[in-house]
Design brief:
The chain is an alpha/beta fold and 642 residues long. Among the domains are: 178 residues, no CATH class; 150 residues, no CATH class. The protein contains 12 helices and 49 strands. The strands form 7 sheets. The protein has a 23-stranded parallel sheet that branches. A 12-stranded parallel sheet has the order 16-19-21-23-25-28-31-34-37-40-43-46. Strands 1-3-2-4-7 form a 5-stranded mixed sheet. A hairpin with a 2-residue loop joins β9 and β10. It is globular. Keywords: Repeat, Ubl conjugation pathway. Pathway: Protein modification; protein ubiquitination. This is Parallel beta-helix repeat (Two copies).
Length: 642
Amino acid sequence: MVAISRTGWLVVAIAIVLFGSGALFAADVGTSSPDPVEFDDTVQVGLSLEEQFALEDDVKLPRAQVFYSKYSYVVGYQGVERFVDERAQSTHTERFGYPLAVYVSDYSAVDVSLTDDGYPVADETPPWIDAESAWFVAGSDARSPAGETVVAFSDRDDAEAFAETHGGEVLAWDDVLEAEFDVDDAEVVRDRLDDRLAEADETGERAETLRDRPVSTVVGEDTETIQAAVDAAPANTTVVVPAGRYDERVEIDKPLTLAGEGDATIAGPGWGTVVTATADRTAVTGFDITGVGDETAGTDTVPDHGPEDREDRGEGWDEELTDHYAGGDAGVAIVGGAEGLVADVIIRTPSNGVLLHESPDTVVRNVTVDGAEISREGRAGVNAIHSAAVIEDSTIRDGRDGIYTHESQDIVIRNNTIVGNRLGVHLMHTSDAVIAGNEFREQDTTGIYVMTGPERIAIVNNTIRDTETGIIPDSDDSYIASNVVEGTRIGIQQNTAASVIEHNVIAGNAVGIDERSVLPTNRIVRNDFVGNRDHVTSSNGPLRIWSQDGVGNYWQGATTLSDTGERPPAYSPTDSVHERLHLTDGTAMLARAPALEAVSGFEGMVPGLRTGAVTDSAPTCEPNNPERLERTAWADQAWTCE
């Protein structure tokens, strides 16, 4: 056996970490004063706010970059306040180590002013300055799209002049580190959830008033066709459509309620959209709709979505994408009409069921959509483009995407049943969404797929079963809580950052969580892992610690490590021995062997040797969510420490 000294182990560990760094800048932990790097070469916490919010080129938001003792990459923060908030987390030092160097944007080197929104603008990008030598203006009128922001200056006179013009106080670095800032993070998403759902209730109540308009026209009595009745009806009245089959397409260009009575069917000709509304406060209620056209898109070419090609999108990219996704046929389409209602409607469609385009505060309620028999040939049960809608209490079956969104910030998707689609809910470029209380079954690929890196998504109280992958939450600052994920190949494909993942039951999956995040900034606690073949799999990356303030998760198998009936010792679901505790008899005795405990303790001191590992320093003796676990087939396998 070749003996390796403690120093030798450290060198080997650093070499392993740095060798696979790829295009990202790897910090040299042996350098006491590393030079700053290009911000694009950092691992970033938060999105590029300029891109996400389509800010003008002269907007130069404050940033920070940090070199850590235990983390091999340089971390880029969207704002000094973001770094201060992350640093205050109880396990921050354990995950990252100590800051070796902190650099911030220096606004003394540029001519800075503020827009009407408070965004800092300058003729060039501010250079970097060591944070310890900078002066900071906090509490000023300066803002980023995420809220208040701190502006740094190398010259104190410049900082005082900025504060005199724009308000705030001048602070030294040590004072900034002790300050508290309002950061729009995952905890804010959690705290605002009840308010968001209450706001959706109010939107729904407002939409329901559209049913109360006075009747002006009755088809069959006043006119022969629905279209003639719509044309004749005064605005803000109701057109009643008695039971029967109506072979036509309908266009509504005024605030109107179109209400079917009994078995009223609108049968389109098999091409185009059957009912199109282009006015605010339009309601379509009480119909069966058939004969929808099979055009699933407005253009054949799909503009690129991915973050890797954002620089190549160019002007008009969003318009091209909108033309593609919003140009298909639908059973009901509301285009450019706010505060509408589509309710109590059954749609059979080879393309879209309900299409919303530029139609904020529209409510889709108690709608049933039966899509194409082959999911890849359809489009979406509900397709929301630039539409902060409320989609609730609906059933969507056999489509390409159950619910698809693009740039529909603040959308609420709740209490729906989504079965047999390619994807259940598919979010694109949509921040601040709420996905709550839905039931997903038998999707071809994924239950909930959040793509293109939005922020502040709430995914709560959903049940996802019998799907290839349960949840892929590619979003930062998100709140993923109280979900049941059962019977999937991968329960959660975890690649978020700065998110809270808590109170979920992850049971009976081939893999509970596939951990892919490069940044160890998520708080993953109070979840229950039962009946999974592998509770967690993990890619190469930093040590991830899934406990906080003495609270961890419940792991089937970890309880066998407890000799006293009290809380078991630290558990690592990615450890070659621990990962088999719930599968193989006798593994617990091996895990408690002194030699293995010594190796685990040594590896914990040398972060390079724990690359790719997940550890829970405070696993619980009993499930954290017993009522939720009882809804699965695996509750009887949740062993306690006793």
